[in-house]
Amino acid sequence: NAGVMQNPRHLVRRRGQEARLRCSPMKGHSHVYWYRQLPEEGLKFMVYLQKENIIDESGMPKERFSAEFPKEGPSILRIQQVVRGDSAAYFCASSPLGDRGRNEQFFGPGTRLTVL
Amino acid sequence: KQEVTQIPAALSVPEGENLVLNCSFTDSAIYNLQWFRQDPGKGLTSLLLIQSSQREQTSGRLNASLDKSSGRSTLYIAASQPGDSATYLCAGGYSTLTFGKGTMLLVSP
Q1: N or C terminus of chain B with fewer C-beta within 10 Å?
Q2: CB–CB contact B94 A99 (8 Å)
């Protein structure tokens, strides 16, 4: 059973370009979470999705950031018009349950975004 | 708003010592408390999950406890080894997780 997969592992963008980060959850998991780890800071929750639904986006910046988890295919975190402050490690996690119960989250290796 | 604090921020011990990492949280309504390990430049590895109805979980040399009344969790590592060197993170919440900033552990041979 493959773990959570993220690609690309490293992404370099120039200011103003778009960044697309992909996440494939573990088999059997229908809940996906995105977290961001800024340099010298802890991990911060961004958005929580189920298939075709955004459940909680309270941690997502209001502008330039969007996320989706389509019926088919991976979850996508999209950052438009990137700025240097977007440089960070972006982690995706998946779980079999959304709330309550044994909601153990499993993390992918992350995508390290560098904005030049 | 849930806040998670981890003490100490860094810890250096000789191989073989038993050690305790501390985690405190502000919202006692926490439902799941999860401990992770993160190696430099890598992702997070889940170590232990404690649900709110539980008081502790054990896996090998690791034991995690949860005391909701005091808002604390501890991770106990027995007979530490150099391979245990990493940053240890605790995180709690219902569906989404709030993370502490971690304890950076160095176990020297």
Answers
A1: N
A2: yes
Min Cα–Cα distance to chain B from A16, Å? 26
Q: Which of B34, B41, B98 sits opposite A105 (nearest CB)?
A: B34
Helix (H) or strand (E) holding B98: strand B98-99
CB atoms within 10 A of CB A90: 22
Query: A98–B98: do the CB atoms touch at under 8 Å?
Result: no
**Tens digits of residue pLDDT in A22-42:** 999 999 888 999 999 987 788
Could A48 and B31 be called an inter-chain contact, meaning their C-beta atoms sit closer than 8 Å? no
Contact (CB, 8 A) for B64 and B57: yes
* CB-based contact B43 A91, cutoff 8 Å: yes
Compute the half-sphere exposure of residue A110: CA atoms within 13 Å on the CB side of its CA. 21
Kindly write down the DSSP assignment for every residue of B49-67, as one continuous string.
Answer: EEETT-SEEEETTEEEEEE
Query: What is the DSSP code (8-state) at residue B41?
Result: T
pLDDT at B29 over 90: no
pLDDT band at B1 (very low <50, low <70, confident <90, very high): confident
Closest CA relative to residue A51, chosen from A69, A33, A24, A27: A69
pLDDT greater than 90 at residue B69: no
DSSP state of B31: -
